[in-house]
Amino acid sequence: MDIRLVSALEKIFPDGRGTDAPLPPLSALQGETIAFQLAIRCDVQQYIHPRVETALPASVTLRRVEAVPARLPRTPENSDENYLSLAAGMYPDVLQELGKGALSCFPGQWHSLFIELTLAPDAPGGSHPVRVLLSDMDENPLAAPETNIHVIPAQLPPQQLIHTEWFHADCLADYYHVPVFSDAHWQIIGNFMETAAKRGMTMILTPHFTPPLDTLVGGERTTVQLVDVEVTNGQYRFGFDKLEKWIRLAQNKGFRWFEFAHFFTQWGAKAAPKIMGTKDGAYQRLFGWDTPAVGGEYTRFLHAYLPQLTERLREWGVADQCYFHISDEPSQQHLESYLAAKETVEHLLCGFPIMDAISDYDIYRACRINPPVVYIVRMADFCTQHVSPLWGYYCCVPTQVMTNRFLQMPLARVRALGLQAWKYGWQGFLHWGYNFYNTTHSIAPLNPYLDTEAGGGLPAGDPFLVYPGPGGVPEESLRLTALHGAMQDLRALSALEALAGREKALAILDADGEVTLESYPASGEKLLALRQRINAAIARALE
Description:
Elements: E1 2-7, E2 26-30, E3 33-41, E4 46-53, E5 58-70, E6 89-97, E7 103-105, E8 110-119, E9 126-135, E10 141-143, E11 146-155, E12 162-165, H1 169-176, H2 183-198, E13 203-206, E14 228-232, E15 235-239, H3 241-253, E16 257-260, E17 275-279, E18 282-287, H4 297-315, E19 322-324, H5 335-345, E20 356-358, H6 361-367, E21 372-375, H7 379-384, E22 391-393, H8 412-415, H9 417-423, E23 428-431, E24 466-468, E25 474-476, H10 478-500, H11 502-509, H12 524-542
């Protein structure tokens, strides 16, 4: 048996890749979640029973790391040197519960046990030993590797960054084969909300109408419409019960902010989204791809709907926490239709922020969106112009140089996002795929354990951060834990800034080379060493 303690920012492959880097010193603030891995290789097949022993007040989670396929290979033209591999293959990602509390080890292969400790808010400062006790099926002790966690006696401040990963309620109904907004569906939605909020997401995409996103022109996604619509003699009536239920459930799970799904179709704002309703006694599609965005019945519908919606949001006490969208990712060729669509609703949304993904500064100036959600490759243009507030996003690109979350990338490349968000003062961050389990353009549903690339249309890992686990409970990914680490790093830098000033925090952040959108700690070892220095500076500032 070969056993090694390894950083949580390594991906451990069956052939031993990822096991060579020794576990660096671990430190954390009170209430923080900290993780590491136990890599193990056995000469014979056996079951290993692990448990963690520590006097540190903390909740402990043990899970095995399993691999999923990445079949869309990278090429030198659409990659860089900071990939684990450019080849198609199986990549460690999904975190799964231990079957009967045991880790099943196959002979001659390396396996990973992912160990997380969430410290109590009052965890005592100082160094605390943590032992991983391993035994066989008969409870005979096999090994007890040990590390230490140094606790800084201060808590992370609340996360100020508004963080949204688009939540696809239709994919949950489709994968689990449950009726939309049935009791079973609501339970599953709550489970997936809870995991998202636990990992640092504070805003949720809210499907007042089925989001007109990633849908083939002329096609449909499963209807997940929270607002009921009834048309009688040309007059519209609205039911908001399910919308209020969604908002209260999300609040209960830890969300604070709500972004309402787009009023117009993606990439052009040319048509209305799919809206279902009861008209003269028959449930039917009222609007869709065949409905012009502007100037017809859909405009009249919005003028009836929005005053009632905003009134309800104020009644529920959430109006100050709501954002709206017009149409996703308009380009120069869409500018005329986008502005026309925006003009039909903006006067009904006075006081509410309107946000959209914008990839060009000139388009932003013309669209007058506040805040713009900026593709990080173009972020420098907006920073030069001192645009504020500023949001960032990435998606299926960039594939080179900058941070992203593809399966073939090292986990440090995911986690570096927090350093960048703090340095550039982002108000928010958006990504399109928390749980997108469809092919590209939602032509068909798929099994994300077998297809991580939306049917071959996107880089592996781009469409989702969680897997649809048994019983309607999400299974997390390594990439999600790294993103959570990014949010904690951002909060630690904010803590240091509050204690010692921004210049001191910047000096520590940039000590080994300036952190920019294109330059950041590229390995887990370097990133964790930087976090150690941040924690040490916080400790000194507390003295």
